[in-house]
């Protein structure tokens, strides 16, 4: 007897597409989820490792993340820095100057950092064989 709870391939793909639509419809909410999943309590190297796992195991998640990152970068919310700090636990400072004082990044520098990270994440995504199975088509 077949298990009625068992999903077939079409059901799984439909579920993935529905989740993707929800993420893309609310990019700021997904951005917060992404920050927590990839950055929270991680160094840059650890975040990149987390990203590589997502790209290889869940390419549709990675595709949605890149879409939402682009959306956030193209139209940053006024509280972008607060979102990055609260949901990603990322607080960026410049190296101490001669007097030993550290200076936190400006809003513009946070945005530039986010663009650079997106570029790194895009390169990893583009190099992964798993990204060939896009859910869009």
What topology does this entry show?
Blueprint: H1 9-25, H2 27-39, H3 44-57, H4 59-74, H5 80-88, H6 107-127
Helix pairs in contact: 1-4, 2-4, 2-5, 3-4, 3-6, 4-6
What does this structure look like?
It is a single chain. By secondary structure, this protein is mainly α. The chain has one domain (10-131). It has 6 helices and no strands. It has helices at residues 9-25, 27-39, 44-57, 59-74, 80-88, 107-127. It is elongated and about 65 Å long.
Q: pLDDT under 50 segments (min length 5)? A: 133-137
Mean pLDDT: 88
Cα separation of the termini: 33 Å
Nearest-angstrom radius of gyration?
Answer: 18 Å
Name the helicity range: 55-70%
Work out the strand percent: under 5%
What's the helix-strand series? HHHHHH
How many domain regions? 1
Main attributes?
137 residues, elongated, 6 helices, disordered C terminus, mainly alpha
What's the short story on this structure?
This protein is an all-alpha fold and 137 residues long. The chain contains six helices and no strands. It has one domain.
